[in-house]
Amino acid sequence: MNGGRRLRAALAGLLTLLVLAGCGYGSERVDTGARVAPKGPKLSVDEVRVGYFPNLTHATALVGVREGFLQKELGGTKLATATFNAGPATVEALTSGSVDLAWMGPSPAINSYTKSGGKSLRIVAGAASRGVRLVVNPDRIRTVADVKGKRIASPQLGNTQDVALLNWISRQGWQVDAASGRGDVSVVRTDNRLAPSAYRSGSIDGAWVPEPTASLLVAEGAKVLLDEADLWPDGQFVITHLVVSQRFLTEHRDVVEAVVRGSVRTNAWINSRPGPAKASANAALRHLTGKELPQKIIDAAWPSLTFTDDPLAGTLGAQAEHAVRAGLMRRPDLTGIYDLHALNTLRAAAGRPAADDAGLGVSRGVAPR
């Protein structure tokens, strides 16, 4: 009887894990196919755990892990990784201590920092900018005015692209209830992995999505109606940055500095060798998901992305304001969300100007809360 109960409990637990994974909110520790093993003196921990998404906006992590740039900087400290399909799951892992650092978008970072009263995380470096487009069915939508009354997908309620879409809709003078997505435009929250099939079935008329989902939809016959970069000064806005839990930063700053060095080195390599970088990112995707992107998709998506260690802090405040206007949050206090000491030390050593924290960082003398 006891054995039967244990078996039933184990099966129930397995079913729960499968359901969570199917919903896209789970994570798993993965063999990343990294080419460099731990070697040399250890830093202040035996192992550091980092999280990221298996998509092109997280190519800094994909390439940095696979090519060994992160592990080389960590020396004898082992690099362990976890992949996620949604920002909330990444934040939960960071908060619980399941991961120590993570690449994530601005909206999850803002939400976590605000809800914790400024105690959850710090942004320590940039990673990527741009790479988000509004793509639509050209048979149903030919102009911006045609979007009214249509069904437009975003990846998830309150995620970075959802906020951008709601803000854009508001600027057209249209009304949408942020929570339900109902209004002059129907905002349909759709996992990026499901967006191509939703488009094929006709259940959505378009989508405001990051790469490579935008290019995958274009391959299905969609057309680009709007590149989000066109809405920003200089065409740049943060899409992915590197964050760390405040506890880990306080206790293991040497490890954080090593990961930042690895991230900076990775972006420099990506920008200097785009061909090998695309191949490396695609190989990492194949290893993590079992499927690589068609070459025509990655070739179409890659030029729309900018890989930069500058966190573009000035755009973070604007994105927070967009969420406020959409009714997704109250006006947040983001003072102290940045700690760019390690990043700017590297930039100074390379003769580069300091990355600006837009007055929102401990680097400006703000005491940690």
From TrEMBL:
Main location: membrane
UniProt keywords, alphabetically: Cell inner membrane, Cell membrane, Membrane, Signal, Transport
Calcium recorded as keyword: no
Location(s), subcellular: Cell inner membrane; Periplasm
GO MF terms, alphabetically ordered: ATPase-coupled transmembrane transporter activity
Top-level lineage group: Bacteria
Xref: InterPro entries: ABC_SsuA_sub-bd, NrtA/CpmA_ABC-bd_dom
GO cellular component, one term: periplasmic space
Family: Belongs to the bacterial solute-binding protein SsuA/TauA family.
PANTHER family hit by this protein: ALIPHATIC SULFONATES-BINDING PROTEIN-RELATED, TAURINE-BINDING PERIPLASMIC PROTEIN
Name recorded for this polypeptide: Sulfate ABC transporter substrate-binding protein
Source species taxonomy: Bacteria, Bacillati, Actinomycetota, Actinomycetes, Kitasatosporales
